[in-house]
Amino acid sequence: MREQEQFLKVLDRDEAERRFRAAVDLTPRGIEHVALDAALDRVLAVDVVSPLDVPSFDRSNVDGFAVVAHDTFGASEEVPRCLRLGDEVIHTGIVPSSVIRGGEAVAIATGGMVPRGADAVIMIEHVDVRDATLQVRRAVTAGSGVAFAGTDITAGETVLRRGQILTSRDTGVLAAIGVADVDVWRKPVVAILSTGDEIIAPGEPMRPARVFDSNAQILADAVRELGGEPRRLGIVPDDEDAIRRKVREALEVADIVLLSGGTSKGAGDVSYRVVAELSDPGIVAHGVALKPGKPICLAATHGRPVVVLPGFPTSAIFTFHEFVAPVLSAMAGRGVEDRTVVEARLAVRVNSEIGRTEYLLVGLVDAGDTAGEPSLAAYPMGQGSGSVTSFSRADGFTTIGQHEEIVSAGATITVRLLGRGLRLADLVVIGSHCVGLDYLLGELEQQGVRAKFMAVGSLAGLEAAKRGECDVAGVHLLDVQSGLYNRPFLTEALDLVAGYGRLQGIVFRTGDPRFEGRTAADAIAGAVRDPDCVMVNRNQGSGTRALIDRLLAGARPAGYAVQPRNHNAVAAAVVQGRADWGMTLDTIARRAGLGFIPVQHEQYDFVIPKARVRRPGVAAFVARLRDPITRRALVELGMQP
Fold it and tell me: What is the DSSP code (8-state) at residue 70?
């Protein structure tokens, strides 16, 4: 009989972990192409870029009538405005033939395509029909009742990023853009082998001195929770040859091998002896200063983890989560979440509709030191019922009571998380959208920096930085008086990190004589004079909108009220003929095959609150921005570092 041996050296937990991780390959296991039906809870291996706009056309949100909003101004119950009602009724799935001009309207169903010329849809409840006349009893503003094409997702937009765990909200986004299959990281295969003469499988008759194998079930389900694929190899008695055969079998099919039991150095414990035969490097720790879990044996061979967990269930699962779970998560590209309900401070005022309880989706960011107030700031993610990305990107929701019309900025709200917990981003970026920024955030995600981006425009991003609610604000604001970009807008509490140059200009469909071969000034002057020349604007508060308003000098040409939130949406509107011209970047114009008239070389920089400069996520962002490889990549994207 072999005498019981003693542990050669008991290591502290951190040293054991350091040795173990140094010996294993933590990279994801390779790309697997799966159907969308099988993508839930999988980890994206590549960025997902939308091939189309969502919605792909200007869509009616209500049953009613497509109108020109200006024609309804002044309408009331007592003095309705009268419009000529066209014969066409626009149903869903139909491309309308009507072109709406002043004083005209056509009937349209919810989900129907808004015809050219119309900029609003008035609800059927607010009108009366008398023969061929529509009596309007309530005024509407431009954009009312309409979801403009690309206002949710724009063609070419990165909707989901590499390393993201797909939830039901994310698969809804993929379905909304027509994706039928997706590239994900292959699930790490984890072989699970239970050892011991006393172990029997659940379902077998209990016999004296035997115990049911609970460890295999616990470990298999824990592996599934962490994104792995368990491969149960059964129960093996305390026989070195039998265990050796099973370990060899496991190493042929698995990325991680787990043995349960036989790790103590008693006379009947043989698993660690088999593992001791492995090399490159073999056992790196046998005995760790933990309670429970001291007997754990950590090994690796050719970068593949082989771990002998203690036989007692509590010790087995504790040591699994301490040492194996982080390795498995890294191989699967996953993270851990842990909260359900949190308090937050509302970042901006929210208007709600009296008489209805509203569930407001919010994104949560670290607001820093707020002197006793909640340390989280909540940004509304949109209040539209048709928005897919708002639901996908939100962290949670708050309930606004039916008797509340306004929730003030700074109010404390309770947020119920959409996932099983809240994992705050390592880097929060709020401000202007740019394809160069998209690239930077994607690269940071690859190196483990989880970023949250909210496209709210340069001015709103600057204000968020002043309030300390973001780490970085992307801005391109021109101070007309000095002729300088961005720096004149700084306060003592803000730093400026130089970004890169970009070229803004007018985009149009090639061959359009109203723009082809003209200067920017001539083209805009002609567009303003031509009532049939429709523009697409940008959202208020964006740097591009400020540039447009300076060029228009107070003019409000057709389409001025259409205000998508990013550069891609502008190009999409022109490509699809919903607009004839707009303002966007030269890189986006080239990608869309559009004509381009240069207007303004501008500087796109990054404002950083001084209180956040030393945060790891900010440091990683600045380092990546200044990296020579990044600068070359930005040049290839059309930027001007």
Answer: G
Name which of 52, 61, 57 is nearest 386 in CA terms: 61
pLDDT at residue 548, rounded to an integer: 94
Identify the CA nearest to 189 among candidates 299, 30, 18, 17.
Answer: 30
Among 46, 56, 50, which residue's Cα sits nearest to residue 156? 50
The residue among 388, 323, 368 whose CA lies nearest residue 54 is 388
| Segment 136-164, tens digit of pLDDT | 999 999 999 999 998 888 888 999 999 99
Q: State percent of the chain over pLDDT 90.
A: 63
Residue of 290, 331, 330, 280 whose CA lies nearest to 310? 290
- Concatenated DSSP letters of 393-451: H--EEEEE-TT-SEE-TT-EEEEEESSSS----SEEEEE---HHHHHHHHHHHHTT--E
Strand runs labelled E in 196-273: 199-200, 211-212, 229-236, 256-260
d(CA 503, CA 509): 18
Alpha carbons 535 and 532: distance in angstroms, whole number: 10
Q: How many CB atoms lie within 10 A of CB 37?
A: 10
Q: Which residues of 102-118 are buried (b: 16+ CB within 10 A; e: fewer)?
A: eebbbbbbbbbbbbbbb
SS3 label, residue 627? coil
Token representation of residue 351: 């208007």
Q: What whole-number distance in Å separates Cα of residue 232 and Cα of residue 150?
A: 48
Q: What is the mean pLDDT of residues 476-499?
A: 93
Q: Is 180 exposed, middle or buried (0-12, 13-18, 19+ CB in 10 A)?
A: exposed
Reference 573, options 524, 516, 528, 508; nearest CA is 508
Distances (CA, A) of 533 to 69, 131, 142, 539, 556: 18, 32, 17, 20, 12
* Interacting residues of 7 by C-beta distance below 8 A, sequence separation 6+: 265, 286, 287, 294, 295
Pairing type for strands 81-90 and 104-108 reads: parallel
Distance CA 42, CA 371 (A): 40
With 0-12 / 13-18 / 19 or more C-beta atoms within 10 angstroms meaning exposed / middle / buried, residue 616 is: exposed
Q: Whose CA is closest to 470, among 390, 366, 382?
A: 366
Rounded Cα–Cα distance for residues 479 and 246 (Å): 72
DSSP per-residue letters across 37-64: GG-TT-BBSS-EE-SS-BSSS-EESSSE
Residue 388 confidence (pLDDT): 53
Q: What is the tens place of the pLDDT at every residue in 374-433? A: 788 888 875 443 455 666 678 888 888 777 888 898 899 999 887 666 778 899 999 988
Residue 138 burial class via C-beta count within 10 angstroms: exposed 0-12, middle 13-18, buried 19 and up: middle
